[in-house]
Amino acid sequence: MTLAGLSRRDALCALAGTAMTQAARAAASRPNILFILMDDLGYPSLSCFGNRFVPTPNLDRLAKEGVRFTQAYVTPQCTPTRSTLLTGQYTARNKMWHVIPWYGYPSARVTEPPYGENLSRDAFTMAKGLKAAGYATACIGKWHLTANPDGNYIGLNPEASHHYGFDVTQTPAKIPNEHNTGDKSVTRFTEEAIAFFEANRERPWFCYLAHHSIHRAVSAPPLLVEKYRRLGYPETGINHATYLAAIEHFDAAIGRLLASLDRMGLRERTAVVFLSDNGGVYRTYLPNPPAPADREPVRLVEAPGDFSNAPLRAGKGFAYEGGLRVPMIVRWPGVTQSGATCETPVHAVDLMPTFFEMAGAKAPPNYSVDGVSLVPLFGGKRIARRALYWYMPFYDVRWLATPSAVIRDGDYKLIDYFGDFIDEDKRAEYTVGARLELYNLRNDPGETRNLAARMPDRARSMQRQLHAWIRSCGSEVPGLNPKYDPHLPLAEAHRTAPA
Length: 499
Hints:
This protein is of the alpha/beta class. Helices cover 26% and strands 17% of the residues.
């Protein structure tokens, strides 16, 4: 029936309804963006990703109302993932492939290229692009992208926030060492995020909410820890009581965030994206291994971990799936398919172009954005197949890391160790010599069968593709170190004065 066939009152109601629908569509085309980044949260840490030890009802609800990504990738450590997210560039291009502040291995066999020790004020960031598009922007929580007066591991200083595109950041901690004690600031950050939503209800906003949980030192409310002790979980080691309590606690905090969006009438206008910065701490090793006995190989000493990333191999810091693959959930009402699962491989580098498409934002002319928008995946469509890359030309014996790079192309993943490696399968034995590892992730997601010797043509072809990509980003394939000391190959050095 046309409007002409309706009464005046019904016609006015229909027109009002049409206007409201158009307004809702306009709002949906420029949603608020709540981006929640957890710290060291492994792939199977949520019950909707397989956790059998602790329920996560609020994140499970988010997954039921949105899309669960089962092959979402980040880098295996904190600073590199955060730089990738905020710049929209792989670490080979933005040069922030190493945790800061500086440490290195000057006597190691392979040269470690110089890396970025601070995100420059001049760097283009996701927040700058969204702010230019009319968004209010907030950075609440962990920063770990500068080690200077602008900010540090704990947070971005309020007086410097505008240099990186943020209108506001979190208030300074009132409790010493708050990021390592109590609930690791989960409650405070949640309250400050909700206050930001409230203050900006009438305009689109972007909230970068980066928790310290569940990074070591793991901490949680004592009553919750006691709950898991009574259930029989250990004090330390894999799946310890404090770790499981911390998961339950931050899930409840996310429930508060979701409830606040409902209460403010912002649910339909807000896209919520949940991600971790790297895998969980499964194994860690002590730095500066003791000198071996005569003719014995250098071996690293293992220390207790926190959480098993099984069925994925290893965890934080490693080039294996347990270090790189993390839980990711996206809910964008009216766009995402409720309860959907997406198996397409995606990367943290994709979030800048994704958020920019959602917000109508743009990067500067000639700025290299390495990712692609994931918006088609939200509605069940496809994106073009492409390779994913990682550039990790550094040593960090805590995670058995030696200079390497990784490419995933289709079902195959290649790890290229440039000149030495520490063999996890041989009791963390240090070995001189380059090494290729090739895995078919569809058939072997646990990376138990190295196919490089059986499929040498594929391995070499992927290696050539990987090296060409490294050079195209303006980085180098590391070579042998002229200052190599075979007696101290894994001696770690720290800078005591500012760079």
